[in-house]
Write a structure and sequence with these properties.
Elements lengths: L13 H19 L2 E3 L7 E3 L5 E3 L2 E3 L6 E5 L7 H13 L4 E5 L3 H13 L4 E4 L4 H9 L4 E3 L8 H13 L4 E6 L5 H7 L4 H17 L5 E6 L3 H14 L5 E2 L7 H17 L5 E3 L6 H14 L7 E5 L10 H11 L7 E6 L5 H7 L2 E6 L2 E6 L2 E7 L3 H11 L5
Parallel strand pairs: 5-6, 5-12, 6-7, 7-8, 8-9, 9-10, 11-12, 13-14, 14-15
Antiparallel strand pairs: 1-2, 3-4, 15-16, 16-17
Helix pairs in contact: 2-3, 3-4, 4-5, 6-7, 7-8, 8-9, 9-10, 11-13
Bound molecules: iron/sulfur cluster.
Length: 397
């Protein structure tokens, strides 16, 4: 059974709620070694202490910024198409990209792909140790592989030794849909304990071979199950965790499921790198992943664009303004919070709390920088004015 916390039915006020949340966090830190960290948001999150590994030049775990991953959806043997998708994902802000190495042609192509990729490439391998060795020789920055699935001790050693020699971590990826038969029989059906046991079996093989650069994922299409499984691993180990809801589905459903699953864990301080799985383009997966981080104040180099939902008081074309801003600021890599509000009722207060804000009136916008009014601009100049301010903005850290 999946044991998620239930809200207290007799909580009487927001104050009481926040006190009890604070207490839960304090209690948790006593039992799990979680510590308070301070992300960009003013709200303090607990942060699980995990060991640090490096995927190429991207640090993962040990307090490193949470990285966003995606996976290419091309045939890996089609180098041009695969590299094109990687470049698009990188442009959208992807930190790490995974590529399947599922046949001889893919194994032959991986070296070329690595050479042309601006971000670290991870080889996704099932069962075949030769493909793993080829991918490592081709320069991949991480291998996703479950050592217990590649056969003899000798094969396992060959892969782990080469990975160690090349300082390449291994991600053990356990999935509720493909648990080992004996574990499934023992637990009856995929449970959090079953996912944990499977992950530890593979991790144990690595540790026995003196290989410690391990990252773990315990994914499921069942959001509650994956949350519980990740919590178990977080409480019992210090492995860095790759979060994801597997086969999350088409964009709308997949975005919601991933946001709940990944978001819940991140809000508890659990998770070091994330991948949103969507039946959609890798760029969409990256955008959703980045948005999850932004929502929790965990994005370190992204624009956070806040806009009011609009209502009958709206006095400018806010839809067009936010759409234009989203497009024009999509490549900006600095942590800046922008708020665009549609009228004078809530506008000034909210706009002044952002790094850059605009409170709109009839055909005009009042521009704020760090709570101070800078100037008044015409509606048609709002987008240019905000983009100009973002250009000048210097983040504090
Ligand atoms: S800021 Fe103004 S226009 Fe926007 S939702 Fe609030 S009241 Fe409506």
């Amino acid at each position: 059974m999946i044991d998620l916390p239930v809200a207290s039915p007799d909580s009487k006020s927001e104050k009481q709620n926040s006190q009890s949340i604070e207490k839960m966090r304090t209690d948790k830190s006593e039992t799990t070694g979680l510590q308070a960290a301070e992300p960009m948001s003013q709200v303090k999150f607990p942060l699980r202490q995990s060991r640090r590994v490096h995927i190429g030049n991207v640090p993962v775990g040990g307090g490193a910024p949470i990285s966003v991953q995606t996976m290419t959806k091309t045939k890996t043997s089609d180098v041009d198409a695969t590299v094109k998708q990687i470049l698009q994902a990188a442009e959208a802000g992807c930190d790490i990209v995974r590529v399947t190495v599922n046949d001889k042609e893919a194994a032959a192509a991986i070296g070329d792909i690595v050479k042309q990729s601006p971000i670290p490439v991870v080889a996704d391998i099932h069962f075949n140790h030769v493909f793993a060795l080829k991918a490592l020789e081709g320069g991949v920055a991480k291998v996703r592989l479950n050592p217990g699935n590649i056969g003899s001790v000798d094969r396992i050693r060959q892969v782990l030794n080469l990975a160690k020699e090349r300082k390449v971590p291994i991600r053990i990826g356990v999935n509720s849909g493909s648990l080992e038969k004996d574990i499934l029989e023992k637990h009856g059906y995929p449970t959090a304990e079953a996912l944990y046991e499977s992950a530890m079996r593979h991790a144990g093989i690595c540790e026995e071979n003196n290989f410690h650069d391990v990252i773990i994922s315990v994914k499921s299409t069942d959001v509650r199950l994956m949350i519980e499984a990740y919590r178990l691993i977080a409480q019992r180990t210090d492995y860095p965790l790759h979060l994801g809801v597997t086969e999350a589905g088409p964009t709308r459903v997949g975005t919601i499921k991933s946001s709940i699953g990944i978001g819940t864990l991140l809000a508890e301080g659990i998770g070091d790198t994330i991948r949103v799985s969507l039946t959609d383009d890798p760029v969409k997966e990256v955008e959703v992943g980045k948005e999850i981080l932004r929502s929790l104040g965990l994005a370190t180099r992204n624009v956070e664009l806040i806009a009011c939902p609009t209502c009958g008081r709206l006095e400018v074309d806010l839809f067009s303004i936010t759409q234009q801003l989203e497009e024009r600021l999509s490549g900006v890599k600095k942590p800046v919070k922008i708020a665009i509000l549609g009228c004078v009722v809530n506008g000034p207060g909210e706009a002044s709390e952002a790094d850059i804000g605009v409170a709109c009136g009839k055909g005009v916008g009042i521009l704020y920088r760090k709570g101070e009014v800078i100037r008044r601009v015409k509606e048609e100049e709002i987008v240019d004015a905000v983009v100009e301010e973002v250009g000048k903005y210097q983040p504090e850290n």
